[in-house]
Amino acid sequence: MTTEKKKVLMVCLGNICRSPIAEAVFQSSVEKMGKTNDWVVDSAAIIGYHTGNRPDERALNVLRRRGHDYKGRARPISDNDFKTFDYIFGMDKENMSDLNEMKPESSKSKLLMLGNYGLPKHENIIEDPYYLVGEAAFEKVYDQCEIACTEFLKQFYDTKSI
Fold first, then answer.
1. Is 12 a catalytic residue?
2. What is the Cα–Cα distance from 73 to 110, expressed in whole angstroms?
3. Domains observed in the chain
4. Which member of 56, 81, 92, 128 is catalytic?
5. Which residues contact 106 (CB under 8 A, 6 or more apart)?
6. Phi, psi of 145 (to 5 degrees)
7. Helix (H) or strand (E) holding 57
8. Residue 22 in contact with residue 149, Cβ under 8 Å?
9. Of the candidates 14, 37, 113, 134, which lies 20 to 30 Å from 126 by C-alpha distance?
10. Phi/psi at 79 (nearest 5 deg)?
């Protein structure tokens, strides 16, 4: 019996910091659970400023240190994404507002804020580290994504849906 794969799209403003990290972490989380065949994971941007670019070097450095070889490139979210992906995760309230405005009537996607899974309410916003100096904020984004992705998957498999 074949079950259709669930599809997850991680979204942030430019698709060069938070969403690529979240994509890599989610993929790693499903691999650790032995559920790779259950999921398709991708990431996208609210805006297309960085289309075709690799993630910020600081994000890539954090991913490398944590064992990921990320190959993705930035792309903007499309109307088709709302029809294709089961779950679209935003990183902050602005992302969620933009996603809700962009969502076509024909959307099948559930729009969720990633930080609402496993993170304390006062830390559920995954802040954009782009304008900060150094990699500490990127490390924090990774840690938040790891907690949130793990918790989302735990809840998903406990209830078989979200």
1. yes
2. 24
3. 6-159 (3.40.50.2300)
4. 128
5. 82, 83
6. -65, -40
7. helix 57-65
8. yes
9. 37
10. -55, -40
